[in-house]
From TrEMBL, chain A:
Superkingdom of this protein's organism: Bacteria
Entry protein name: AB hydrolase-1 domain-containing protein
Listed InterPro entries: AB_hydrolase_1, AB_hydrolase_fold, AB_hydrolase_sf
AB hydrolase-1 domain boundaries: 23-243
Gene3D superfamilies the record matches: alpha/beta hydrolase
Automatic annotation (TrEMBL), chain B:
Organism of origin: Filimonas zeae
Domain of life: Bacteria
Protein name: Acyl carrier protein
Record InterPro entries: ACP-like_sf (IPR036736)
Length: 253, 100
């Protein structure tokens, strides 16, 4: 597996169409990994761009980390990855928490980001996910897997469930992830968001609980366009071709 | 031992199966190796219980071992989610054989 070292930790990444002139960098969501892009969205983008995707620390096949899950650190990790891969500027897209990381990166490193695609970025002021983390137990995982059986490639099985459970237990109880996320509750109030200079495509599932966050960002980011796609928060899994094609058109403009 | 080393392609489907089985054993790891029965008709998700990032790892091993002529990611990307979930080892063996 391709791995680079960032801040002393191994980071798993994948890339397609390395010869292309322009690069798209993809950031996955919290408790997920780069596979959300690997099978469908990345190959569509790779018809036009070099595509780079990576597993955030504590996720996928990257090394674990006990701390540093707040947006500034996650954006700094992303910037360090760009340094190591010698990517002076990229089109950037993120999904869910990855959309918040992408937005933070655009604020922190504006010269290094060309166009910005934000998919299903939630409002960090929404306490539901933090409450879910606080209450997490194995039964909740089983319930989640049962409800999302056909959507997230999680068709049960003792080994897979055990692996997910161990990962969640680690992230929720042995890292600062919950506190780090809690501290971001006012991120959308950051005045810098209103001054964001980037062309920004906001994509949300029409029936997603996060649509309100999309509308809020659309109101605050002057150069933004909000697109609703049939689906819910898992719209990149439900409609990967639509997401891939929308991003391709947007980044090609 | 990690078998992620380019080698000469196997000469028949039994050899291909043996190579793919080794990949899966490496991905599953020692803790669960004896609990999972890896057969030609095993599906990646329901039988082998691979999650999505493990299928990425499997895909990378296939690409590196069988060479760049084989567009394994491209082949997977043409499948919808239901097809990916239903994917069996025998489908991959057939694909690899067809690419020769």
């Amino acid at each position: 597996m391709p791995v680079i070292t960032i801040n002393g930790r191994a980071v798993h990444y994948q890339q397609l169409n390395e010869q292309a002139t322009d690069t798209v960098l993809l950031v996955h969501g919290m408790f997920s990994n780069l596979a959300v892009y690997y099978f469908h969205i990345a190959p569509i983008l790779a018809q036009h761009f070099r595509v780079v995707m990576y597993d955030m620390k504590g996720h996928g096949m990257s090394d674990r980390a006990e701390s540093g899950y707040h947006l500034e650190a996650m954006a700094a990790d992303m910037q360090a990855l760009m340094q190591v891969l010698r990517l002076p500027a990229v089109h950037l897209a993120g999904y869910s928490f990855g959309a918040l990381v992408a937005l933070k990166a655009a604020l922190e490193y504006p010269q290094r980001i060309r166009r910005l695609g934000l998919i299903e970025g939630p409002d960090p002021a929404d306490k539901r996910m933090l409450e879910g983390i606080a209450q997490y137990n194995r039964d909740m995982l089983l319930d989640y897997v049962e409800k999302n059986d056909s959507q997230v490639l999680t068709t049960g099985g003792r080994r897979r469930l055990e692996k997910m459970h161990r990962r969640f237990e680690y992230l929720f109880h042995e890292t600062t992830i919950r506190n780090d996320m809690e501290k971001e509750h006012a991120f959308f109030e950051d005045a810098a968001i209103r001054a964001l200079p980037h062309d920004t495509l906001l994509m949300y599932g029409r029936s997603s609980d996060c649509v309100g966050a999309g509308e809020l960002l659309h109101n605050r980011i002057s150069r933004s366009n909000l697109v609703l796609i049939e689906g819910d928060h898992t719209v990149p899994v439900q409609q990967p071709a639509v997401i891939g094609e929308r991003l391709t058109t947007f980044f090609n403009n | 031992m990690d078998s992620l080393v380019p080698t000469h392609a196997p000469v028949n489907s039994e050899d291909t199966f043996a190579v793919l089985k080794t990949f899966i054993e490496e991905i599953i790891g020692e803790d669960f190796k004896d609990e999972i029965d890896i057969r030609r008709d095993s599906s990646f998700t329901a039988d082998l219980e691979l999650d999505s990032i493990e299928i990425v790892a499997f895909s990378e091993k296939v690409k590196l071992h069988f060479g760049s002529k084989l567009d394994f990611t491209g082949w997977l990307s043409n499948m919808d989610l239901d097809e990916l979930i239903a994917l069996k080892l025998s489908d991959v063996i057939e694909y690899i054989e067809a690419c020769r």
